[in-house]
């Protein structure tokens, strides 16, 4: 799967759990170890965990993709999911404001994603 498609799928899964401020950072010209960061927030630690769960289960169920590693799940303030070509950062708002990843990687092209609902991204076809 292409890394840009994977980033869109991740954004869609996050949007299904009401993630806020979903941003894609295109790091292909900046870093060698990943193509994209997808950065989003949940209002509470419980919501960040729900966003993580939606991404994990959606990609596993529909595409047989699992992250190479996950960090921060126990606390839920900053959850990192490493899909190699795409690294997902799920923050609570205060933690996101503190670390300011978007500013840290300011030279990378960024866009706020208009996430497509995950049902559409999963490739379901009702024959219409």
Write the layout of secondary structure elements.
Blueprint: H1 3-16, E1 20-26, E2 36-41, H2 45-63, E3 69-71, E4 78-82, E5 86-91, H3 93-99, H4 101-104, E6 110-112, H5 118-121
Parallel strand pairs: 2-5
Antiparallel strand pairs: 1-2, 1-6, 3-4, 4-5
Specify the overall morphology.
Answer: globular
**What do we call the CATH homologous superfamily?**
Beta Polymerase, domain 2
Residue share in helix? 25-40%
User: Count of helices?
Assistant: 5
Might you state the CATH topology name? Beta Polymerase, domain 2
Q: Beta-sheet strand percentage? A: 15-25%
The helix/strand series, from N terminus to C terminus, equals: HEEHEEEHHEH
Low-confidence stretches: 118-128
Largest sheet: 6 strands, mixed
Give the strand order, joined by hyphens, for the main sheet: 3-4-5-2-1-6
CATH top level class name: Alpha Beta
Averaged pLDDT: 87
> Number of domains in the coordinates?
1
Overall structural class, as computed from helix and strand content, comes to alpha+beta
Give the beta-strand count. 6
Alpha-carbon distance between the termini?
A: 26 Å
What is the second-level CATH architecture?
2-Layer Sandwich
Radius of gyration computed on alpha carbons: 14 Å
Give a verbal description of the structure.
The structure is a single chain. The protein is an alpha+beta fold and 128 residues long. The protein has a single domain (3-113), classed as Beta Polymerase, domain 2. 38% of the residues lie in helices and 23% in strands. It has five helices and six strands, in the order H-E-E-H-E-E-E-H-H-E-H. It has helices at 3-16, 45-63, 93-99, 101-104, 118-121; strands spanning 20-26, 36-41, 69-71, 78-82, 86-91, 110-112. It has a six-stranded mixed β-sheet. The chain is globular.
């Amino acid at each position: 799967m292409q890394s840009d498609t994977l980033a869109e799928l991740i954004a869609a899964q996050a949007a299904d759990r009401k993630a806020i401020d979903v941003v894609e950072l295109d790091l292909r010209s900046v870093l060698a170890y990943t193509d994209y960061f997808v950065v989003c927030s949940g209002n509470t630690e419980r919501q960040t965990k729900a966003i993580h769960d939606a991404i994990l289960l959606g990609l596993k169920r529909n595409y047989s993709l699992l992250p190479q590693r996950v960090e921060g799940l126990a606390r839920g303030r900053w959850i990192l999911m490493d899909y190699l070509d795409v690294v997902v950062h799920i923050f609570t708002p205060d933690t996101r404001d503190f670390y300011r990843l978007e500013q840290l990687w300011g030279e990378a092209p960024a866009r706020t994603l208009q996430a497509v609902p995950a049902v559409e991204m999963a490739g379901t076809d009702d024959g219409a």
